[in-house]
Amino acid sequence: MTSTLSAAAHDCLRAATPEDKVALTFATAEAFARGELADDDGAPPPDPIRMPGRPARPRLVHPRELPRRGFGTDEGRAAFIHSVAHIEFNAIDLAWDAVYRFRGMPRDFYADWARIAHDEARHFAMLRERLQALGHDYGDFDAHNGLWEMAEKTAHSGLERMALVPRVLEARGLDVTPGMIAKLRQLGDHATADILVVILREEVGHVAAGSRWFRWHCERDGVDPEPTFRRLLVEYGRGVLHGPFNHDARSAAGFSEEELRSLEQAAALA
Hints:
Layout: H1 5-14, H2 18-33, H3 74-101, H4 107-133, H5 146-153, H6 158-170, H7 172-186, H8 190-221, H9 225-236, H10 247-252, H11 257-269
Helix pairs in contact: 1-2, 1-3, 2-4, 3-4, 3-6, 4-8, 5-6, 6-8, 6-9, 7-8, 9-11
């Protein structure tokens, strides 16, 4: 393993197979937590953003090309689990890209996103194991690239990245997961539902980290968080905002009442 945090994060990003990305993520996050990776003071600027290492499958398609499947069949349930696993796989890269790309931040910033990368890798591993138990594997279904596309759009700004990736795209899980858990329980699929309970609980903390560092950037830059968030929703939110929103979970994850109203208004216009 490389000796600096940014180099180790870059290695995680470039890892192409699920096995390598998960194993390297666990090793890197745990090494950083033990104080074994040096800070990057004076490190050169990061490379221009590019697609992280990915396996040959799943095939990435436009969201409109993804078939709609119900939960009523094993195939439909496996496709759903695959879609969540794909989100978690992307989330590993999103966390490491935040560590790698945004230099000169407080150590707590890197501690948050290294820990989150570790969580996302664990989530992916749980979902992949469940998928395998149903006779499938990661890559068996098509997927889309929306999360990473937003990472590319926000690579120039830590403020915009924190506002839009954890607080808009990843926070969507806070809205939809409770209903998915209830539906899976009705179908008797408690194994999958139990995994989603763990993910939902931990994702509140991940979105809260996005809220915390969004406000940190706003304070550093001398801008008001709430109108700034509202402006970014108008600028970037078309096509990615969908209600209804889970106000309780989002409040626990650091959203103010004004921000929740902005989400509702922006979704109505999207």
